[in-house]
């Protein structure tokens, strides 16, 4: 008996070592490529800006204080959160039925439809945004269509609507793909069983399928939210210079003003806010449904 | 039987995977090999690293300076492309290195002044750049060789604006409400235009701010890139604005109905050129590059394709280009920016612009 326990322990130790050996290289890569730059960025965010020396070594909270004491920057954060929440809600609203339908589709058509969903991802986000610019600009397709049909001009470029449309179109494929695989794992017989016991389809979905897919939907929505919070090309090109979100503001400080310490602080504030809101959103999901 | 089939099919798969891998290596190896050999050869040959803007500018440098002039002398040029601010930051970050990454760097006059003030630039040796004697006065400095320049003009659509504004004040006319605009990145030059209107210099920013606030109240439209500010003149979104003469010419050639009106108070000029960092590994090569970019043939190429005015007195433009780039008679007042003032004020003005005009 004692020998069995010892053998079991040895085997567990060996398994642990093997797992460590396999995980080691990947952990090293993550540490070097992700954690190290973040630490460097954190260090920069405590430095002082200098027009001549780029930055002066210091340990000061002034870059963070500048953000939190200036209503302008807080307003930019509010806009960013508003756009991210709205576009995530729209993505879930549009993506949910699409993903459900895809998951329940006959395999023959599913392949074709999946390709249709993935196809936009073959094109870079900037190129897709340029496509939206052509559609939404004055003299563009939308403008021509509304002028001909309703005799009114439709100037959507450089409006919040254009930004949200752009972000939703960019994030939707990711959300549909994630949720489709979640729906795929839910046994269709469960729905059939619920319906056989007298539940109409909507009730069967709501009482049986929804609790099972909720953790997956939450993950997809969080991914969508993170992508929206960090959107850069869409707000710049479709929102124009007057529509300010955090990522373009960060780039302005980094690329136009060369103020690396403040840009680094903005990066951390954006990352921290996204993380906090993600944790908060997770708390809203009932504990029994969490992943 | 099934097992045998499965093994055979697996073998087929293995073979096909191997074939695929071999095929991939066969394709990639010849592609990668020249890069390896090339980098070894570059280390030994006469190679210049040019850090510059991408797009048309880089292409025209390649077509008009590098291929026809430098390559004939056996000089190879490697272009390192990107925006100006990261380029300046790179030079600042590399200041303590004995050998920097760039031999010659493209910058605007304002940035060249900032870099010179930081002590990062080599003073240009006129004996090694013979063409510098042809460079126009007031455009360059001891550390900055001007390459192209263009006055900022009032751009307008002649079909909708028969009588164009003749001064900055005209842009604030209520008849252009919501139909006036320019690219956001040109904000500092727009402020200089307002300053010139207010007091004849590029350094009266207090008055310039008041004027820009008024212009903003007249429905000023801002565009994220220079290119995106052109089509609105065709679509009817814009009637008037501020733009480089060079861009007006480029857009005319692209079929956009625009013309230039020179403000009577004078025009601020955009100047860009080249500098040599103090820690440039190949300074001799950098001088050769600067000399080549000041050759008349190279300057003609930029005038023809980008509409920039040559920065040398012997460019000898003729035909359609000369006609398009001809300055009106009497010659407009061309005012170079007050580099010291703009350099000092830029961070403050950027903050003001962001909070007051963009957000306003």
- Rounded mean pLDDT of chain A is 90
Class from secondary-structure proportions of chain A: mainly alpha
Instruction: State the domain count of chain B.
Output: 2
User: Strand sequence of the main sheet of chain A, in spatial order?
Assistant: 1-2
Strand content range of chain A = under 5%
Strand count of chain A: 2
Radius of gyration of chain A: 24 Å
Instruction: Tell me the greatest interface.
Output: A-B, 26 and 30 residues
The major β-sheet of chain B equals:
11 strands, mixed
Name of the CATH superfamily of chain A: MetI-like
Compute the CA-based radius of gyration of chain B.
25 Å
Write the element-wise H/E pattern of chain B from the N-terminal end onward: HEHEHEHEEHHEHEHEEHHEHEH
C-alpha termini separation of chain B: 79 Å
Q: Within the CATH hierarchy, at the fold level, what is the topology of chain A?
A: MetI-like fold
Please identify, by name, the CATH architecture of the largest domain in chain B: 3-Layer(aba) Sandwich
Second rung of CATH, namely the architecture of chain A: Orthogonal Bundle
Total beta strand runs of chain B? 11
Percent helix of chain A: over 70%
Overall geometric form of chain A: flat
CATH class of the largest domain in chain B: Alpha Beta
Q: Would you identify the regions of chain B where 5 or more consecutive residues have pLDDT less than 50?
A: 34-44
């Amino acid at each position: 008996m004692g020998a069995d326990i010892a053998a079991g322990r040895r085997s567990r130790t060996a398994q642990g070592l093997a797992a460590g050996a396999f995980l080691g290289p990947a952990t090293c890569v993550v540490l070097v490529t992700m954690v190290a730059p973040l630490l460097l960025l954190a260090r920069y965010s405590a430095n002082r800006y200098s027009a001549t020396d780029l930055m002066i070594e210091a340990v000061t909270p002034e870059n963070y204080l500048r953000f939190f004491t200036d209503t302008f920057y807080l307003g930019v954060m509010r806009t960013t959160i508003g756009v991210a929440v709205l576009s995530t809600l729209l993505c879930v609203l549009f993506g949910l039925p699409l993903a459900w339908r895809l998951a329940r589709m006959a395999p023959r058509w599913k392949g074709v439809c999946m390709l249709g969903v993935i196809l936009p991802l073959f094109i870079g986000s900037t190129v897709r945004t340029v496509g939206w610019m052509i559609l939404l600009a004055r003299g563009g397709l939308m403008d021509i269509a509304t002028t001909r049909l309703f005799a009114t001009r439709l100037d959507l470029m450089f409006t919040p609507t254009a930004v949200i449309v752009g972000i939703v179109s960019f994030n939707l494929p990711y959300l549909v793909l994630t949720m489709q695989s979640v729906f795929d794992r839910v046994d269709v017989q469960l729905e059939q069983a619920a319906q056989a016991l007298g539940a109409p389809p909507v009730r069967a979905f709501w009482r049986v399928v929804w609790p099972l897919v909720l953790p997956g939907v939450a993950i997809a929505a969080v991914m969508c939210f993170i992508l929206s919070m960090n959107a850069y090309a869409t707000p710049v090109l479709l929102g124009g210079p007057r529509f300010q979100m955090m990522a373009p503001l960060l780039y302005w400080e980094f690329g136009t003003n060369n103020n690396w310490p403040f840009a680094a602080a903005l990066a951390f504030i954006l990352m921290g806010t996204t993380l906090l809101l993600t944790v908060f959103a997770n708390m809203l999901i009932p504990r029994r449904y969490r992943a | 039987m099934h097992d045998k089939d499965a093994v055979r099919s697996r073998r087929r798969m293995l073979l096909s995977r191997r074939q695929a891998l071999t095929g991939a290596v066969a394709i990639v190896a010849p592609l990668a090999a020249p890069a390896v050999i090339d980098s070894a050869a570059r280390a030994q040959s006469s190679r210049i690293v040019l850090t510059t803007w991408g797009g048309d500018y880089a292409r025209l440098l390649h077509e008009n300076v590098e291929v026809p002039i430098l390559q004939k002398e056996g000089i190879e040029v490697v272009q390192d492309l990107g925006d100006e601010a990261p380029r300046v930051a790179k030079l600042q970050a590399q200041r303590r290195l004995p050998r920097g990454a760039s031999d010659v760097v493209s910058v605007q006059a304002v940035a060249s002044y900032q870099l010179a003030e930081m002590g990062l630039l080599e003073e240009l040796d006129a004996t090694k750049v013979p063409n510098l004697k042809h460079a126009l006065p007031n455009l360059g400095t001891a550390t900055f060789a001007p390459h192209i320049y263009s006055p900022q003009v009032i751009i307008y659509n002649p079909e909708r604006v028969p009588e164009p504004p003749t001064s900055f004040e005209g842009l604030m006319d209520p008849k252009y409400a919501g139909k006036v605009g320019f690219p956001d990145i040109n904000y500092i030059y727009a402020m200089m235009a307002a300053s010139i209107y207010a007091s004849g210099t590029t350094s009266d920013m207090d008055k310039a701010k008041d004027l820009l606030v008024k212009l903003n109240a007249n429905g000023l439209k801002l565009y994220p890139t220079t290119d995106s500010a052109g089509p609105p003149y065709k679509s009817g979104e814009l009637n008037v604005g501020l733009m480089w003469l060079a861009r007006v010419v480029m857009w005319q050639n692209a079929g956009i109905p625009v013309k230039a009106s020179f403000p009577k108070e004078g025009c601020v000029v955009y100047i860009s050129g080249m500098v040599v960092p103090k820690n440039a590994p190949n300074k001799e090569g950098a001088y050769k590059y600067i000399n080549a970019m000041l050759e008349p043939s190279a300057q003609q190429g930029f005038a023809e394709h980008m509409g920039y005015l040559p920065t040398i007195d012997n460019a000898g433009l003729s035909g359609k280009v000369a006609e398009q780039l001809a300055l009106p008679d009497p010659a407009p007042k061309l005012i170079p920016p007050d580099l010291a003032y703009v350099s000092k004020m830029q961070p403050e003005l950027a903050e003001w612009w962001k909070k007051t005009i963009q957000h306003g």
